[in-house]
Amino acid sequence: MKMSRRAKLAYSLAICMLVLGLTGLNVLLSVQAVALDMDFYMSTWTELDIPGSAGMSLDDLRLTGERLLGYFVGSEATPQVTAVVEGAHRPVFREHEIEHLRDVRHLFRLGFRAKRVCWAMVLTGVLLAGWQSGVPGHHEQRDKRRYLYSLSLGLGDLISRSLKVAGLVLVAATVLLSVPALLDFTRWWTGFHLITFDNDLWRLDPRSDWLIKIFPEEFFSAAVTRIGLYSAAVTAAYIVIGMLLRFSISNISPDYGKYNF
């Protein structure tokens, strides 16, 4: 039996909510997995020999990194830390670096809020899908068992479609973003800063600003690469799970074709 107009509207809204929510969660959780991973910081600093180029011990770098992560998530009031830098015990960052880190913290806070919004979208999409599958008139003279069965089919179908669409959107976005980054990361990274920040505080001097000594461009290149790999893995999981779910519904459920989802 064909879906009613209300059911079709709910179906479309549910798809939109799920696709947007799943896409956003993929990106935000991938960024968070790298940006808040102290082990990644330590391994990359070691690989790039940051202790040598920044004149700081690995222990002091860890102390600095932990303070920064605490500042970004809100558990520390300031990103400033005192450490031994080139043989002198002093504050690591200058005032304009502190101001830039304040802008970075604002980005983290926006990301945390966006993640909550994405979770809300996914939940709303699932609820709409459940409501759509159980809209009166969607099935004729159903008993409770038949109703629950058809409801599960409808939910599975919609989630399957949403996973596959979100996966395809992410594949397209990954290609559009990764190709320019691979061709010229410096230009890509500069463009990111020009879009993200409304001031020039991010233009640091590698001769005198320790923030850029600790986090050179090569560090962020490694971070972006890892974020891309995490996102690609989740994207592949979306598509595979969506296809498997669709296969299960259409081939294992003999009554699937009766409901026209």
Shape: elongated
- Please state the average pLDDT score: 88
Largest sheet: 2 strands, antiparallel
β-sheet strand percentage? under 5%
| Neighbour order of strands in the largest sheet | 1-2
The H-and-E topology, N to C, reads as HHHHEEHHHHH
Structural class: mainly alpha
The total beta strand count reads 2
- Alpha carbon gap, first and last residue: 9 Å
Tell me the quaternary state. Answer: single chain
Rg estimate, integer Å = 24 Å
Count, helices: 9
How helix-rich are the residues, as a percent range?
Answer: over 70%
How many structurally independent domains? Answer: 1
Low-confidence stretches: 136-141, 257-261
Give a structural overview.
The chain is mostly helical and 261 residues long. The protein has one domain. 74% of the residues lie in helices and 3% in strands. It has helices spanning 5-35, 38-47, 50-54, 58-73, 95-133, 144-183, 185-196, 210-214, 217-252; strands at 82-85, 88-91. Strands 1-2 form a two-stranded antiparallel ribbon. Strand 1 (82-85) and strand 2 (88-91) form a beta hairpin. Helix 5 (95-133) runs antiparallel to helix 6 (144-183). Residues 136-141 and 257-261 have low confidence and may be disordered.
Summarize this structure as a short list of keywords or feature phrases.
261 residues; mainly alpha; two-stranded antiparallel ribbon; 9 helices; 2 strands; 3% strand; elongated; disordered C terminus
